[in-house]
Amino acid sequence: MTAARWFHDTLTRAGYEVDLHDLATASIDPASRRLAVPWTWLRRSIRMSLGTAVGWHWGANAVEVEWMRYRPRRELSRALRGYDCIQVVCGTPAWAGVVTGLRVPVVLQAATVVAWERAAFFAQHLTLADRWRQLMAAGVSRLERTALRDVDAVLVENPVMADFVRSVGQEQVVLAPPGVDTSFFTPPIGGWRRDGYLLSLCRLADPRKGLDRLVDAYALLVKADLGVPDLVLAGSGTLPEELASRITALGLGDRIEVRPDVSPADLVGLYQGASVFLQTSYEEGLGLSTIEAMACGLPVVSTASAGALEVVVDGVTGCLVPLEPADAVPAAVATRTRELLRGAGGRAGRRGRERAVEEFSTEVAARAILETYDELLATRPPRVPAAAQAPAGAELRG
Question: pLDDT tens for residues 293-308?
């Protein structure tokens, strides 16, 4: 939900009237018509209030079948036709299939594609249910290509994604990653803390984040130097049981702290108390948590995913570790982390803060996005612009 919140707040400050439309992402979605629950097909509406948020949540028909979540809903389509522009914020581009064909300009912000996003998961799971998920993923990949061609503009977060989007026939591709509030995410008053804990922040149960190899890297760090700081694994969700068992088996139960479901209000303090930010993802579209960490003056050690290559300057704001060979990643992460702790961590943190402000602050990031809206809305009849934002997909579930 981080990117969706950023879009909402940024567009509102820019003078747009923004409504939120949240889409069903789970097979047990409470607003949906479910194959497994026949009475739900008697529902007259699949719309629910978002509660304290301004907007609505929309279910799907046959929600257990993944690609049905990316299909239009007649009731939702009627609600969206009154907008001047629809901004879709999502993980996979397939979500744009919900809103194309409405004769309303659609801007899609997509972080990745399903084949890249789920590669790490499918590499680790081979059950019959996972075979079914692979089949659905193949269908989603086809929907992605259609959606990318049908929208009016695509906002991407890194050059690799930009090349992919162009390859399917979309010409209006804009490198415009979301930003962070660098007046909120700031370094601690006393400067960089060499003795602070090591920190990783992500979705704890997401295999794409590579926490297994981060734990292995930390085990190597402790083996080489018992004096290294403790490690904090923070973020949304719950740490998988197999990973928790691995931490115990490695004798790291008293050295690794898990902090689930960190609130936005606690994030700044979490970053400010750390010494090095660690990210060992197999794949990242951008990595907003990395930018937040840099804004708070933290040096970064990250695997060289497409997103990290866009954010981290190797040898300047931190260190990038090659993704291959995969079995060398833990040792390389350990080595680079130790180098920052013993040497130029403070300088890398300061340079990271400068880069976050100059390249990824909200003010800078908003320019390309607002210019895209201006171009699309210039051909629309004049009225107060409104953007209907459709937060959807794994990236927006929090």
Answer: 999 999 999 999 999 9
